[in-house]
Specification:
It contains twelve helices and no strands. It is an all-alpha fold and 314 residues long.
Length: 314
Amino acid sequence: MEQQKFQLFKVRHFTDAINDTLAFAKDYVRQYGYVLLVLVAPIYLIGSFVYSSAMTSFAMSTNFMRNLSHMGATSGLGVAGIMIIALGALVMHLLFISAFMAVERSEDGRIDHTDILRGMRENAGRMITLYLQIFLISLLLVGVFALFVFALVSIHATALLVLGGLVFFVGVVYVAVPLSFITIVYIREELPLGAAVSRCFYLVRHNFWWTLLILFVAGLIGGFAGALFQVPAMALNFMKTFTSVRSGRLDFEVGTADRVAMGLSQFGSIVTTTVTAIATCIQYYSLVEKKDGTTLLQEIENIGTDKDSNDFYR
């Protein structure tokens, strides 16, 4: 039986978006799963190992002053571990954007892991450029916000500080929803950063709450699935806490079992990020169809040609 192309450009309601997220995850798990295992998972595991090494280095010393003297190096190692894990998340998002673009370009919806890897190589430079720009802008915004907070603290303006924190939280949510599409817009549509940001807000306009709900539910689904990989780490922490209470001595040592459990928990993070990344791409294509009518334009262009427009649909 010939495989029909997965319908990307389609206006989706809430249930359709969630169902198509799970359907895409199931239909293409072999293709993107291979790249996850050989490329993304090792990055997460290395980051987890570096981070756990930092925790071990700090916990193994029983001398408080020695801990303080090594705190700078330990903190640096811990930050390095977090940065490596963040790199893994970046590579994962590039993976799924490349997967969706490969499906979009294919004639029948059939893709292979080599198509995904080829797309990742082609778009890696643009992805790095985007995140460097975001990093520099984020540093500037954080600096301005820190100065604002310091000014309010210095004049003991507690009420304004609380109000500012509330406004900041609402603003972050308001901006985070449209900017969740910044990566795929920047890469797929090849727009400069300013135009890509405007495009993201245009797509989400009048669709903010449904988009937020879709991404939130997708995160919950991924979180519940990924929680299974967190069980060993939680069990070890519970056992350590129970033993510490009985013995009256706190035990912060990170042993081999803790390292293995922490590494395994990273697969839970991969599962969670996978579902969210797929849902983001699914909703992007849905909003593009709703705003631009891509399918209708393609059908108009295909009138009078030998190409059957029904091949576009799943």
